[in-house]
């Protein structure tokens, strides 16, 4: 029996490889095994295996790791710790195991302690192990579960600190693990005809991929025509703007862990950003009710599947209508004959009640979203003005007022970052804002501004004041003076709402025919636009004219050639006289139009649902499949929150 | 495979409770402390059953074998790459191969180190001996290769090795020539929590701003208040005399933090209810709570709200918003006037003026949310210039008198009459409405109008 092996199935198959890899580690360790897990690893690990599977592999008991308390070990037990590869966590664990160095003597053949680092074990961990006197007592492993299949077309590696490492700390340590996962993807889905990369981390990633060596021969047919790998900092607005779609807003308001959100009536991601003392304590209704988790997976939750990429207003009214309809359906029960009722209760009712539970969950979630976002229209108008750089001075004032009257630890800062990215913020202006910010959220947050400046999200503060620039900043900038963001955004036609006035009305009608609907018709996520360009290009020349003006884009062709779109087009041109010549050499034929219509998108540093929804829209428009993958899925506030961890 | 086994319940345990697989129904608690309920309480691991149905994509996977997606050779490669220690010689290797393997190992340890192979291994997180990189040139070469390959952890490994095998001058020279390596090393120090080395290195390489920031954070992180104060004092003194220009914002915040620390020490009661390190706004809120004279605040008292706001450079808007919230929560609405009315400083003889530093609408809405009586709402609404906006807002916050005012302002006689009908008979609002109507009608005959007509 040979089942048809669809692309989605193959992507789900990552789980099998992850099991295989975990099994290899666990089975290499003899003895009575106990697994001690870092709590944050539990949810993602559930996507790899179940507890019963672990039991089959010889794990006797599973504990949650407690950094404050070490676990006593019986003489015949083997302890296997599983932690994230974070230096801090690792050091804490070593300190916890430190007493062993005094009592135990290393046994060459049987190590009683093992540490599995996810996703990679850094080489200097061995050095630290030796320094702690634990060499020979503790054995290190690393384990990378690669891509976790969240939903149709959505993959995540669940590496939550990658953005922070790469963009804020300048630490490229996590990249090799990503390269390894991309290599596994190539083994499973075949190498693509062309890879478009944008940004230095993306280019580095591809360089590593190459350094990992050739792939073994595979009998599988390739699935993807092209890959698109892009750095997060090449398209910050997609993360910083508040999305208008259902899935995006769910992530804005609720904490996400490994593809599911936690809906809690008493606290959520937005309410916990506010200063509690300054809240008008609205009666917290039903605070005692249990938090509920909702899986963002369309196969297991059809309500989510139907609504995930719809405009929020549309989705929430659909859900409300659904609740009503279900209520009516259940009322029918009253008017039924006994026999009918038997049949109904036996066959239809369980399904209906299950559906009802699901719908109610979404109803509850969408109501909390509405309550939390408050004046959503005002926020969106503000964001739109920031995008189009309309009266910068007023925008600064508005953001400051928001900080005072509805200060949100991450979201208010996020607006300022957006303003800096789109229109520029002067160091003196940041200084004033930062002063108010520290008053609001405490002096200890002073370091955040430096962190965000590191990522280019805010200007660097300067040791001495420069008086003359202040004058200039106060002048309204003439329209033709574009910031770099606007120049690039205009070249790629990302801004869809700048022509205000008469066509403003027309744009609302067009909203549904343009991927910018994810931001209420104001902005097209860069990845979606690039996907659309890749899928629509008929020749290398066409691609080149669209992308030539953008710096930092690279094309990678299969035989390890790395070039730019422009150079590639030029090369194709010189070859082109005599199409026979091109086809005879085979390899050198123009890869455009892409023969395989599937694309794989990887965002280095966290993708978001606005991007995913926009790509989904493009894929429906062009009849292609687009898979969006990233190290993690993030809302804009998560991005800003990364700067707070130090 | 028995998948009936509910995996969820296994994860749902507190850290010190484990579950043995031997008796599937009962949970074997090997606890050394009280089984803490913290996981139950915050409910992260307690969920309803439906969404948790199954985390495996089992229907698909039950039919999917790994062979279909990955060739045997590829899988072998993947597993081999996962293996950290390649020096272990596996069983079943023929003597010939074993000899080859050993010869290669000896060669790489005793003679010329293999640069690329070492770099490659380090990148994959595998152990590779570094000891044979002895000359400075070899060391630098190794570092540079890794820097160009990316993968910061390998760079750190080599840097730790260099630090051990080179003296400080050489080590720092190497860092100085390679900003990327310096960055990586700094990030390592930060992560490892070695604050003093981190600050030293920042200062050595002239990055005083970051060093100051780090010192500040370290000072705030001190365990108890006295040592926190001491560290802050030292920091402020150091940068006052250091002669390196420090970012003005940093300087301001350092001073403010020290001042607040001193204040909290002196006025022990002020911050008691707030935890160890309150924010300036939180402390201002407490100052507002404790202030009992809003008519004339005693500016000599450091915990008078206005004085505190001035000391901490809290913006007028923040001060007003905090005071508004606190006074409204305390239902001391009479004080609100004192907060928003002030004598213009440039002209002390002039009468008091109403002044607000943020959008009036926000103030009205917040007061409404805090259940302020409608006379208070009316006071704030009366300050709004635009009658149209005033009407909309007054209707939103259900302040009838302000609605009447706004209608009168808009000369909406018809609407006023309609409104009068809906109001309860002989109520205060009805009288108010009638008066408004009367004055609207009588206004026609005021002298202004006559003059205009002439």
UniProtKB/TrEMBL annotation, chain A:
The record's Gene Ontology biological-process terms are: vesicle-mediated transport
**By its UniProt entry, which InterPro entries does this protein fall under?**
Sec-1-like_dom1, Sec-1-like_dom3a, Sec1-like, Sec1-like_dom2, Sec1-like_sf, VPS33_dom3b
Q: Where is the composition biased (Low complexity)?
A: 576-586
Q: Which SUPFAM superfamilies match?
A: Sec1/munc18-like (SM) proteins
Matches recorded under Pfam families: Sec1 (PF00995)
Q: Where is this region: Disordered?
A: 562-586
Gene3D superfamilies the UniProt entry points to: 1.25.40.850, 3.40.50.1910, 3.40.50.2060, Syntaxin Binding Protein 1, Chain A, domain 2
Where are stretches of biased composition, namely Polar residues?
562-575
Family recorded in the similarity comment: Belongs to the STXBP/unc-18/SEC1 family.
- What is this protein's name? Vacuolar protein sorting-associated protein 33B
Q: Which organism is it from?
A: Drosophila pseudoobscura pseudoobscura (Fruit fly)
Traced from the root, the source organism's taxonomic lineage reads:
Eukaryota, Metazoa, Ecdysozoa, Arthropoda, Hexapoda
Q: Which gene encodes it?
A: Vps33B
TrEMBL record, chain B:
Q: Which GO terms describe its biological process?
A: intracellular protein transport; vacuolar transport
- Tell me which residues make up the Vps16 C-terminal domain: 135-242
User: One cellular component GO annotation, for this chain's record?
Assistant: late endosome
Q: Which UniProt keywords apply?
A: Cytoplasmic vesicle, Endosome
Q: Which InterPro entries match?
A: Spe-39 (IPR040057), Vps16_C (IPR006925)
Task: Tell me where it resides.
Answer: Cytoplasmic vesicle; Early endosome; Late endosome
Pfam families in the record? Vps16_C
Classify the source by domain of life: Eukaryota
Main location, first listed in the record: cytoplasm
* Keyword Nucleus tagged: no
Record-linked PANTHER family: DEFECTIVE SPERMATOGENESIS PROTEIN 39, SPERMATOGENESIS-DEFECTIVE PROTEIN 39 HOMOLOG
Q: What is this protein called?
A: Vacuolar protein sorting-associated protein 16B
